[in-house]
Amino acid sequence: MRHLLGIEGLSQGQITDILDLAEQYVSRNRQPDKHVGGLAGRTMINMFFENSTRTQASFEIAGKRLGADVLNMSMATSSVKKGETLIDTALTLNAMHPDLLVVRHQNSGAVALLAEKVNCAVINAGDGRHEHPTQALLDALTIRRRKGRLHRLTVAICGDIAHSRVARSNILLLGKMENRVRLVGPRTLMPTGVDKFGVEVFEDMREGLEGADVVMMLRLQKERMDGGFIPSEREYFHRWGLDAEKLGYAKDEAIVMHPGPMNRGVEIDGEIADDINRSVIQEQVEMGVAVRMAVLDLLSRPTHNGRESLLA
Predict the structure, then answer these.
(1) At how many degrees (to 10) do helices 12-29 and 165-176 cross?
(2) Is pTM, for the whole model, over 0.90?
(3) Measured between alpha carbons, how far is residue 304 from residues 6, 38, 59, 295, 299 in Å?
(4) Tens-digit pLDDT profile for residues 280-303
(5) Could you give the residue numbers annotated as active site?
(6) Sign of the torsion angle spanned by Cα atoms 243, 248, 249, 253
(7) H-helix or E-strand containing 238?
(8) Is the separation of the CB atoms in 185 and 168 below 8 Å?
(9) Over the stretch 242-279, which tens digit does the pLDDT of each residue have?
């Protein structure tokens, strides 16, 4: 069975090939007729156990542009809320013979468990603090398009690293592509064992951003915090929020990223977020549809261009 559960299992070549295919979908998505039809007759189910705007909408648009029948399950009113286990839900859906399941779950490893129980392709749309592979892929495509390459760059990932599956997937992907990765933020928001990640760690934003090609800000995930990780939002922005003064330490041509949703005035200054010369935040959203189209395309076919699926 073919799945996309994380970046960890992908090679450098596979990542490159996914991004190359996504480039084709970027061009198609900018045309008046955006539909391809390659998944006509296929059924795709979105199962989001956590709230989502960008990721769920992006997957839905991607599936429909490829011609799939797309069902968005309302997990808030599903049988899971009545006590049904995740495995029983998976078995029930499996009996309906879907072709693709897109799953977001609050527990790390839940998506991989579900993938063991079904006979269709499963895509991890974010599981707990574990991984969010398509976010890392769309970030990579955005970087490659803006910087002209995806290797030997200095990338600073800043903020709430400890609770971020986006950070974990990006660390894995950027490392595979031979980039210099820096993690910047308070010690309380650094994950356990960060010294084994193969990255540089900074507590001071100015030191961490010095000479950076890419500045990737992260959302402060209060819903995953069970204690006093930061003194206050005002103090957090003063020390770790991105403003013009701190960004000045990065390279003049450095780009600014954020996976969304943004907390303006907490993680990032509004003027920086809206700066069309530095911010690529809206481009990230656009790349998300193209990357997810590429992943759905590859996972739904036993062969692609005469060779085995990249994600087999």
Answers:
(1) 110
(2) yes
(3) 21, 12, 20, 12, 9
(4) 999 999 999 999 999 999 998 765
(5) 54-55, 82, 104, 132
(6) positive
(7) helix 233-240
(8) no
(9) 999 999 999 999 999 999 999 999 999 999 999 999 99
